[in-house]
Amino acid sequence: MNYPVWEVPGIGLPWVIGIIAIFHVMISHFAVGGGIYLAVAEAKAIRENRRDWLPILERHSKFFLVLTGVFGAVSGVGIWFAIGLIQPEATSTLIHNFVFGWAIEWVFFIVELSAAAVYYYTWRRIPDKLHMKVGNLYAVASVCTLVIINGILTFMLTPGTTWLKAAGTGHESAYFWNAFFNPTYWPSLILRTLVCLSLAGVWALVSFSRLDDDTFGKAKVSMIRWSAGWLLPAFVLMPFMLGWYLYMVPRENQHLLELGMTTIGSGAFTQITRIALISVISTATIVGIVYFFAYKFPKDLTYGHALSVLFIALAATGSTEYAREAVRKPYVIGSHMYSNGVRISEVDTFNRDGYLTKSMWSPGKDASQVEVGKAMFRGQCLSCHTAGGYRSMRAFLADRDAKAIGNILKVLHDHKLDSPYRYYMPPLVGTQQEIEALQSYLLTLKDAAAPTKVARK
Amino acid sequence: MSKILDYVDERLSLGELRAFAAKKKVPLHRYSYWYYWGGISLFCFICQVVTGIMLLIYFKPGPEAYDSVRQITYDIHFGWLIRSAHNWSATIFLISVLIHMFSVFFMKAYRRPREFGWWSGILLLLLGLTFGFSGYLLPMDELSYFATKIGLATPEALPVLGKTIANLLRGGLEVSDVTVQRFFALHVVILPLLYLPLLGLHLWLVQKHGNAVPPSEEEKPEQERKSIPFFPNFLAKDLGMWLMTLNAIAIMASLFPPQLGKMGDPLSPAPVGIHPEWYFMSQFATLKVIGKLVPGFLGEAAGMTLFALGLILWVLIPFYDVKTKGGLVAKRATYFGIFVVTVLVLTTILGYVLA
User: Cis link prior to A451 (omega < 30° from 0)?
Assistant: First the structure.
């Protein structure tokens, strides 16, 4: 807890990152897929002498210029801003290990941005072959941004044993490539590439469904049908890639996916299973929807149909990203740092010397027990919970008295192997006095919620 | 493969069916998307049948009802999902049926020769609402117990036969496990026996008379009207919409699965703010408002009479708005429809405010 801690009521800190990150992921996947799509489509149009495709592709490419240059860039900076304030320890660890990787990614991003601008503004102004080369550069640069960032994202779930052995020694960055090509790198890269291709096809459907039949009739039909085919690789390969990905995920994280199979009892952590179901169903059905709406009868595809397909595609992407992020629990960096920024290696020290002793933001010596408890809450709970909104502590404590709250805190502190919370909650660290202070603070939250139980309607 | 198809075709004359379907046209105009809602309702109904059969495997009507639903929700692999999908497909079913009914109304699709389609549709909606009401009690938790108790108090206010009907449904003077048994029989046997033939008739009428076009389209000369073949063009889009609906059900069922409250206890007081499901909220709010103006039996009787009159007017609209050309009568019928939609929406909102 060496940095200021935000308190965002209502949606809480996880969703500040979640909203920006899911938006950014969608944008970036559209951009990567779009880069490949434009390059391949233009090459096909020229090779097969389908010149009527080119004005349509020109219109289509404008979207990607705006998407990458405006929304991609802004949301990317937004992620940095949010993670820096919400997960400072994890961000610090990532920067110390991957500063070189990020530098390369930004170079590729600048190349992508520049190539996208040159590509759009040089339609019909430079020879076809040169324009295609610009398109290829745009596609390669955009793919390279994915190739790099995928290494950092997958590292957070599976840092790999080599890096974990070096963690805390001060020589972690010497194991850059081990951390980068971690166990889930390749399945994740292929999965993401498939998603990019699918989203490129889906956006093409949205874009082409608005074309005027009288002006673009024949080209419209052929391009819609061809774009629908872009979902096929994902449909065929995704189950296998997903299986491979899950196989590489540690068993304890796999178990999180199973928690909601049997029950939805209150207090049980079932979100990941439920969200993963949405991901599976929407991914499995989208090809069918595209087949019926676009491939079979491309002439009849309306803007409304295409938007419906886009909505399902976004639901599939968003839910998959949520599940991927959540399956990392209770860590923010697998087997190294818990989701509240406490490193595994620090647990014993914090328990012996106190959690707040080394914090620059701990309350003063004269602070009351409740103030100490509040500092504990802000440091260890706020990265996942809120007082009364998302994962509300008030709702969780509603039926519990002081003794019951104390018991739960003890279970969290002991973090025994058979603890049901162990799969998704970090251990509660600190001295006995600090934990009692947290208990006192939680009781004030519970009291503030009176009447504690709203009658069910 | 072709030999198998030939074998089947020779015996079942599938070719004729295909030729018939291909001959059938679906009008193409700016309001064509309203045509999907009947199909969406049908798909939701199929989902309810499938999930309902799966729930039947574990559900035990009678005294064990609550425990069996608890087992389904909290013990059995994906039992909660099946229950949730059953619940949400019912909700989306009623929404789509209502949208379908009002789109039919505003397209004037109740006019000659489609009157029986209109009447059978209204009956299907009423049966759908009864499905909802009877299914709601089956978990027998606190919420469903008291909602049913209050729900059955309404027909009890009907003069002459009210008490007899309520007692017949309840199986006594109070809602109990006997009521669950009766509602179960109603939900899985009696209602499907009534619903399925009626649905068959409704679908046959749609096939026979085809899709109606809105008055604005009707005024166009024949050569300016566009259409697409039902098979395979419209059917493909319909199937796409079914998959979209499946996604909507999956999203809602996964994100918002229904929990199970405490077991319904006749001796405990009703939870504060108890109210029926959204599809009975309009009637609930209306009765509440009338009850405040005219307390007691008279108020309830007045409310019931109002609903009955509204329904009768709704059913009889094909006899009032008969002309194909627009005119004052047609406009009045449209205004009546707008009035009904407004009242339903406002009273539903009011119901949630008052609850």
Answer: yes
Question: What values do phi and psi take at A343, rounded to 5?
Answer: -80, 150
A292 vs B contacts (CB less than 8 Å): 236-237, 239-240, 243
Q: Tell me which residues of chain A have a pLDDT lower than 70.
A: 1-5, 266-267, 449-457
B39/chain A closest Cα distance in angstroms: 15
Q: Do B77 and A262 touch (CB under 8 A)?
A: yes
Strand extents, DSSP E, A296-391: 331-333, 337-338
Q: Using an 8 Å CB-CB cutoff, list chain A residues near B77.
A: 261-262
Cα B192–chain centre separation = 13
Global pTM value: 0.90
**pLDDT tens digits, one per residue of A336-355:** 999 999 999 999 999 999 99
Q: CB distance A292–B275 less than 8 Å?
A: no
State the CB neighbour count (10 A cutoff) for residue A266.
11
| Spatial distance between the Cα atoms of B290 and B288, rounded to a whole number of angstroms | 6
Q: Report how far residue A163's alpha carbon sits from residue B83's, in angstroms, rounded to the nearest whole number.
A: 45
Contact B83, B59 (CB under 8 A): no
Tell me if A388 sits within 8 A of A9, measured CB to CB. Answer: yes
Distances (CA, A) of B124 to A441, B53, B192, B202, B205: 56, 20, 11, 9, 14
Nearest to A305 among B142, B240, B250 (CB): B240
**Chain centre distance of CA A409:** 30
CB A69 within 8 A of CB A117: yes
Inter-chain contact A264–B275, Cβ cutoff 8 Å? no
Put simply, the answer to whether A289 touches B254 (Cβ < 8 Å) is: no
End-to-end CA distance of chain A: 41
Contact between residue B284 and residue B346 where contact means Cβ atoms under 8 Å apart: no
CB contact under 8 A, A456 and B261: yes
| Chain A residue at shortest CA distance from B146 | A457
Residue A431 and residue A410: Cα distance in Å, rounded?
Answer: 11
Report the C-alpha gap between A257 and A276 in whole angstroms: 8
- Of the candidates A52, A51, A46, A49, the one whose C-alpha atom is nearest the C-alpha of residue A215 is A52
Contacts of A305 in chain B (CB under 8 A): 237, 240
Cα separation, A250 vs A154, in Å, equals 12
Q: How many CB pairs under 8 A join A and B?
A: 85
Question: Which of helix, strand or coil describes residue B259?
Answer: coil
Q: Is B189 helix (H, G, I), strand (E, B) or coil?
A: helix
Amino acid, res. A405: I
Widest pairwise Cα distance in chain B: 74
Q: Which residues contact A107 (CB under 8 A, 6 or more apart)?
A: none
What pLDDT score was predicted for residue A454?
38
pLDDT digits (tens, 9 = 90+) for A102-159: 999 999 999 999 999 999 999 999 999 999 999 999 999 999 999 999 999 999 999 9
Q: Is A427 strand, coil or helix?
A: coil
Nearest CA in chain A to B254: A274
Q: B99 vs A447, which has greater pLDDT?
A: B99
Question: What domains lie within chain B, and their CATH numbers?
Answer: 30-213+223-274 (1.20.810.10), 277-355 (no CATH)
Which of B142, B236, B355 comes nearest A292 by C-beta? B236
Interatomic CA distance for residues A208 and A56, integer angstroms: 8
Q: Is the Cβ pair A262, B75 closer than 8 Å?
A: yes
What is residue A2's predicted lDDT score, i.e. its pLDDT? 56
- For residue A51, the Cα-to-chain-centroid distance in whole angstroms is 39
For A392-409, give one letter per residue: b (16+ CB within 10 A) or e.
bbbebbeebeeeebbebb
Structure tokens at A160: 């790999």
Q: Six-digit token pair at B45?
A: 């109904």
* Sequential DSSP letters for B302-326: HHHHHHHHHHHHHHHHHHHS--SS-
